[in-house]
Structures are given as structure tokens and as C-alpha cells.
């Protein structure tokens, strides 16, 4: 029966239907039969009917005589249900029919349709209460596979028009694609290096360091035929995107005709689920898919699918086109060359027509523009209902289901979806159930049609979708985590993120390093439009990034052999190719999963190679010669999460997973048979593979105690598609195109006893081996601070900061082994600080004496200290590698933020690291985290020895020595003579604007200032205090007092000194009206206040024990905002002590303890400004 339509009381059966089958169906659906099958429900239905009659008669009369209580307010309704059809979509594990759950008395108010290619069914009710009754009954059924109440999504909307865009740098928002109601609250926060000593222990940094490791722009240009395009739109600034993604490079690779690129060369069809299209547009008439089973214009349903003249596609929205709506006539919903004249189905808002031009506008016809894939064809699937909202019509899930089933049945394997929910405002508890249901629904749909790739727009709300994931929300369909979903964000002409301010609100692409896969052009794009726009317009938004990417996906599928050869692995192959072949763009680092922008030419070239050789071409991360590692060692990095896997999505970055550990293992091969954690965990092991001889490599996977669906290997930015001989033996061939380093990542849901051994047959080898070709590489230099004056000489010392405890509970090997990963922030250690010349102690008692002084001890008889020892190596030239001996029961070593090794043991006394290569001439920063008993006889500390990759000295060899002579630790100063040095604070100010309050940092040290002064020298008289013969200054600043003639109202201010003491009791405060305040000690932020004067945190060590003539860098910075601050109020710093009135004492300069380098001495000066 065509689409498998089976209604009750809606549309009469066609004459050609089988009368016997209809009679049998009628018998099965009859009231008597239903009552026999469901006696309990029948009685309940009769009772409800009687009660309803009583209520209908009695309640109105009673209310009119006696009055009725006021109606209680209804619960808040999610926007996803507001205007949604009264439908549910269900599937069962057996052949159950959803109509079986409808009481017979209500069947005349319902109807349903079954999908041809899946077991999904759609039921529609005429009344909300009827739908709720059926939904409740369906949910009780033990054989239920899936059910969801219908919901709607929308294309992002805006009140502005993109036709105002004037040039290639414009990022104005299109009326069909951008949301003008965005706010600035979701803009990407800046990183603050002063608050983190280790930057590789989090999942976000993992993504950046391994999957987005390349930081310079990389563009590969394929050989391109000259197509001499004469489309006038390609000469405009708004055609930048066409060249940027190398469209003609893709055409050349596929051999498209230079005279007629629109000639069809493949069976690939791109299905567009949107608002329809203007089928008569002169630039699009050659781009439409043509239904081979339909005859145009004969007003017949030739292919028997329920649609008349569905030559180009069909409409699945509006009540007229719903097979489950009483009185509808689906047969009148086909879309063809002339159907709009008699059925009125057309694109009423232009969104779909704009998309169509990007996919298939005809090139070389002297008009308009050229699409990405003119040699392919696009199918029109109208799924918007303008009768509900003419300006921003909804996309009902049930309509999308019918459209996908229709297109999939006609052969389409690429779908473009430019709709979603509002990422800015819909993430709230009211919407949570609906958002969860939507995510489940689209995941269910994509999994059922798993031979197709679904390309979804990331949205335009300028929101970090990783924040959605962290809160356990899903932005559908973009964030639906299936192998055949591709989420696409947007870029502007200069390869920056698509972004704009519309009516004072931030709008632009959504992003997320673990949620948004790829970027494609989204700003200032010229394309086809409706007649009221003179058939063309300039548009913006990720609604257009998605179809551009879908078109390239279609070209890739054509290169792979076409849609007739697509299998369930094909979408992932296409996704691999698109993600790994794009151009790396610095602006996308940490913003998208791949950190790449689409490149059509590269993608098609990779697909052709895969099709010709059946080998995936891997993407090289960097060449051997370009590697400039600050730290490198052979081994693997392991990241661990705990939780319960609901599916094999290989993604543990949601809130239902908890990050528990990160460490480096000196594992030379790719045999994974020893795991730190077991059941209910997810691990990610990553390394760089060094390939010296390029060519074809064969891999074998030999596994035990793990199903193939529970692990995944990515190599060279491609997910490996194994050929499985059985569940424990698989193979794959790959092509390493060049010598160099390639990313390799293993993801698995671990169980005790799991083993995965990967064997390699390298180029030229005759057998499979376990080669030692795996490296941990860290290229970032040591962390620096923008405010550091860099004064020398820097002392040879360790800065030790620690907390005290009574036992090892927080560090026990059977408990939280990842403690120092989860608590690596230096701000967390604040009981005490000290400096020592060497951090290597024979016993815990020696450690205690070094930290507390001879016979000193922790407070309250506590016996455990835990924290970190920090130092910098002075720039050295290393002639060999370095191995570190780590002594102590619980230790972790980081160099330049890179994890090196750890020891978690209550019994083992020491361990040695693999051989580490350090960059020459660099002041490497070392963080050594430790926990130890101060009354123990066991050693604690860090020493080093020379080594080679094949020879590391044993811990007891005597080769390990102190590092003291090689240290020069940052943020400390030990001058040889302080007699003539300036005293107090040096202060500078730079004019700023209100945006600086969101950044909260001052400029890089050395940036010329507009205001300069020194305390106590320039102290206002009201703030001066005298201590003996020395005049000091209380730190309470009013700019108007210092500089009476300034008129600018917003200033970034920084004062610094080198301080021989510390903040008293570790507790500081500040008062600043309207702006943020930060304080830093020895390179660590120890106080922060974010602008309201109430929200603050003090994190300085409470006790300090330094050596003589030793000073730590102390920096205070703030933002002065507005005339009130400059002229009436002051920025005041308290130092933690109490004055006579038991109030916090204002920080006062101390000429005996605060010194400055001679270069800091400067006259008081000012320059007023009028603009920034």
C-alpha cells in the first residue's frame, strides 16, 4: 500500500487496494475483536465515558450555582512541544502495531502510518488527551523499542537581513539563519596560565594536544583544471568561499567537463530536508533529482508511493500532507516541475532555495552563481509547516522521519539538515526532558538509516556546545553522537569564526572541541533566492555551512563509487575523509573537533585514493624535520573516565562520565594488556606514531575479553574500519603518504582481562611485529606570565607549596590514584610555602626539617604533607636524554605542563622515568607533586641522570644526582646587593574599554603605558604613613587624585614588586567598584575578584618560610571602570592582618621587604586619551 498507510476513519482506500486484505484488516481492527483482546481496557473505557458525560453535564451546572475553584497554572511547556503535531513515533521489538494500544472507543480519533524501510510507526491523535492515553499505554509495553512524542526544531531566526552584507569581511546575520536574540554570556573564556601548572590532565586539553596538534595554517592545493566560469556571482566578494574550499579542485579530480560541469557523473543524490525550493529558478533547473518511476504532469501516482508527480521530491509537512491527519490528501503533495500550480507546495520562506544554490546552482550559464556539486542531483524534502509560523516554521520530527524514509528508499545517502533548537536559551530544566527525548529520537533515526550520512548545522547562537555536553544536554541533531552524524560550524572570509554583533547581541557559529566536527564557510555567501529578492541574495549562518559540506560529502561518495555501493561503514569513511583532509586553521584550534576548515579538492583526492587502493590515506601530523618538541619521550598517554556506557559512542566527555586519571606509561609498543582501571571505565590512549619509510602498512588486531564494538582505533585522523575474520582477529591496510609523525588514539570501554594487541607489517617488512615507534611529544614552551619582568639573576632553588594532613587517605593506591591530576591547580595548596636548595631528602624527617626548620613540624601533630615543588632549569644544551628518579610513595612529574611519569604506591620507594628528550636552550619548568610522611625513614625527592632510549640507569645505580646547579627558578629574585635599589611598587595603567572586564588581564610586560607612578614615592598625602624615618603608602588608589586631568574612564592597571614576605595569613581582600581584581605571588594567582566587590577568593599560602635576601614576584592588577572609580572611589587592597579595630588592614608598602629592579624606576607621567 505505497507507504504502508493504514488509517482508521480518514482516507478511503483506493480502488486498486486488495478488498480481501481490507476486509481482514477491518475484522482485526473491529470493536468486538478489540474488546475480546482487552477486556480490562474496555471496562475502563466505558467507565471513563460515563464519567465524562457526568462531568460534561454536572460540572457546568455545579460551577454556575456554587462557583468553581480557580484553575491551577499549567506546568511550563517546552518550546519543542509548542506547535508540535499531536503525534508519537514508536518502534517495537516485535510486529506490534501502535494502533493496538488505542482503546476501540478512541480509534476514530487516531490514525497511523508505517515506514517502508524501518519499523518506525507514526500515530496521530485529534486530541491531546487521546495522545497522552496512547503514549502511556505504549510505554508500558515490554516489547517497546523506542517511543517519542513528536516535537519541533527550527532554523535559527533573525530580524536582520543578510542582504545588507557588503564585503567579504562582513559577518552580518541572515534573516533565515542567525539568531538575533543571542547574548554575550557564552563567549569563549580566555585561558589564564597563572592558575594551572599542568595543562594536559583535562579532556579539553587532550583534544587540543592530540587531535588538533597542528597550530599553523595548512592548505593543500590540488591540481585544478581551468573551468573559465562566467557566473557573475563568482566575481563578487561574497564568492570568497567558493575558492577557499577549492571547489574546482574537486571537479578536476573527478574529471567534470570543462564545458558543462553540470553534466551528471554519479548516482549520488543529496537529500535536503528543509523548506522546499523554487523549482523553476533559472540557476537550479538542472540540479534536481528526477524520480525515475514518475511521469511528470500526468497527475498520477506512477510509482505507487502515495504521491502524485513527485518528480523532484515531496512535501511531508502541513496537515494536507500528513497521512495521519483526518481529511488530508497526501497524493497532492508531490513536488515536480509544475506541481506548485495545483497543489500550492513551494518554498515560502526561501531558506531551502538558498541552500539549493550552494549545492547545485548551474555553472557556466552566464547568470548567478555556481554550486559545489553541479554534477550530482538534489532531492527536495519539504518538512517545514508555514501554516504554524510563516516567518520561522517548525521542523516536526515525524515529518523528518517520513522524509528520510522516502529519500532513503529512493537511494539518497547524503542528507543536509539546517535546523536545531536554540542553543542560547533552551538549555534549562524545563526543556531538559524534551531535549533528551529529541536527542534519543534523532539518534534512533540515524541509527536505523545507518548507510546514510546526516550533515547537521551547529547553529548560530555563539555558544560553546561543550557546555551543553558538560551539563548533560544535547543540541539536536548536530550533537547526536552516531558515526553517521557530522556537525558543521561556520567560518568567515579571513578563516576566522563566523561572528557578528546584531542589535548589540552576539551571534555567530556555535563551537565545541568535542562536539562540533568541522568548519565550513558561513558568512557573506552569495546564493539563489526567491523572486522577491531578485532570485539572489547574500546569506550568513551555519544553515549554509551544512549544505556546502553535504555537497562535498556527495562528491566524496561519488569518488568512492556512488551511493549504490554505500554500506554501514561508508558514512564514517566519508566523515573520516572530510575531517582529515580539511585545511588546518589557527583560529579553529580548540574550537572544533578537527580544527579544520573544509577543503573539497583534498577530500575528493583522498576518496579517489581510497577507492583505487582500498587503503585509507592517513593525515600526517608533522614531519620529522619540523618537530620542535620541548619535551619528548617514548610511550603513551592514558586518560581515564568512570561511568556506565549506554552505547559504543567512544565519547566520555558528557556529564554522566567522570574524569578520574591521566598518566604517561613508558610503553614502547602497541600491545595493550595492562590497565590501571577495569570495569565501568572508559580509557583513551594516545601517542604519535613515527613513520620513517612511507608506504602501505598492514595492521592486525588480536584481542581478548572485549567485543569489537567496544573499542575504536583512530590513526592519522581516520577511524580504522577493520575487516573481522572473527570477533578477536581483524585487519586493515593503510597508506602513510610521507615520513613523519601521525596521531594514533585507542578508545575502549575497559573490563578486567581485556587485551588488544596491534601488530604492524611496515613497508618492506615480510612479517608482523610490535615496533617501538610510539612517542609522547609536547611542543609548547614553558609556561610564562604576561606580567613577569624577567629580572635576573634567578636563584637556584625549589619553591615548595603544600598542605598538611593526618594520613594518606586522599592518596591511597586503592582509592584516588589520580589525586594530583584532579588537583593539579597550584591554588589548591596553601597551608604553607618554603624554598629549598635541593628537593632530594634521605628521609621524611629531612624533608620536615627543610620545610619547617630544624625541629619544626606540621600543625596539630599531623604527619603527612602533600603539594608540589616547582623549579626552572636554566637554559642548557643536553648531549643526551634525561631520566628522572622519583622517590616517595605518591609522586607525579610534569615538565612544561606535559605529564612525564607517576608513582602511586604505599610500598614501592622509587621509580625511574623513561628517557626524556628536552629542547636545548630552554628554561624548562618542572612541577613535582608529592605526598610523604614527615616521620618516615623513606626517601622523598627528585634527581636526574643521563640516559639513552635503550639504556636508562636503574634507581639504585648511583647515577642519579641533584639538579640544584642547573636551576634558575622563575618569579624569584636574589640580588647580590639591594642597597641602591628602588623600593615599593611600580604601577602602570593602559586605557581600555568595557570588554576588558571579561578578560581581566593587563597587557604583556613591556607594553608602553599611558600612566606611570610609584609607591610610596608618588603616594597622595592622605595615604602616607610614617614608620620611623621612612615614609610608606597605604594601597588605596584614586586616579583622580594622582592624575587630576585625566578624562578617560576605563583603565587596566598593574602594580608589581618583589616581596621578601607574603600575604599575612594567606588572606587578602580588595575593593574595586565595577572591575575585576587579581593578585599573583610567585607566578600563581592567589586572589581574584570578578567585579561585583562581593564574589572573591583568596588562595595565598598561609605561612611562608624563605631563605635570606630572597624575593618573590608580587603583582596586583585591576580594571578601573567609570568616573565614579576614577574620581570618587578607590581600589583598596587588604593584606590579611587586622588593625586595632579588628578590621582588615590596608596593604602598606614595606621598604624593607619590597624592592624593585633599577629598570623599574621611572618618573610619574601621564598621557590622556580620547579613544581606544
Task: Report what the structure shows.
The chain is α+β, with helices and mostly antiparallel strands. The strands form 13 sheets. Strands 47, 48, 49, 53, 55, 56, 57, 59, 62 and 63 form a ten-stranded antiparallel β-sheet that branches. Strands 23, 24, 25, 27, 29, 30, 33, 35 and 44 form a nine-stranded antiparallel β-sheet that branches. β18 (525-528) and β19 (536-539) form a beta hairpin. α7 packs parallel to α15, α9 (351-360) packs parallel to α13 (542-559) and α13 (542-559) packs across α14.
Secondary-structure content class: alpha+beta
**How many β-strand runs?**
63
Low-confidence stretches: 1-31, 49-75, 158-197, 199-217
Oligomerization category of the chains in this entry? single chain
What integer is the average pLDDT? 85
**N-to-C CA distance:** 71 Å
**Share of helical residues:** 10-25%
Estimated share of beta-strand residues: 25-35%
Overall 3D shape: globular
Alpha carbon gyration radius: 34 Å
How is the main sheet built? 10 strands, antiparallel
Quickly count the helices. Answer: 20
Biased composition (Low complexity): 167-225
Active site: 274, 351, 543
GO biological process, one term: proteolysis
Family: Belongs to the peptidase S8 family.
Q: How would you concisely characterize the structure shown here?
A:
The chain has 1172 residues and is an alpha+beta fold. It is globular.
